[in-house]
Specification:
Elements lengths: L1 E4 L2 H11 L13 E7 L2 E10 L3 E9 L7 H11 L5 E6 L4 H6 L3 E2 L8 E5 L7
Parallel strand pairs: 4-5
Antiparallel strand pairs: 1-2, 2-3, 3-4, 5-7, 6-7
Length: about 130
Amino acid sequence: MEIKPVRLGFAVEFMLDNEQPEDKLDQNFRCSYIGCYSKSKLVGVLSFTETKNSRRIKSIITSKDIPEDDDIVKELLSYAISTDKSVTSFVVPKRVIQFVDAGFNGEGSNKNKVMFMEVKNEKPRL
């Protein structure tokens, strides 16, 4: 699998075609997008925003043609946490285990069982 940036229009089209009702938390498309490609076919998209000290994952959408998407999500999360910033996300129930496996921590959830999770990466001290 290959991870690389995806253009806004292509990412949004993929997300709208493949999202499931339980996938999406954020309707804002003003993000950065990375895609996971398998044999040159886009099979997953992760959207995120960044500040000086943190990266916020907005959503992960995988192709609905691939029922077992653990490898796709693992690749996307691995890219997302490869930063010296803290990485956070509001995680839908079907993704909690995948985020835990990637090193995220979280406690409790809201009435919709959405959990705030975080990986605390620290900048190297000089």
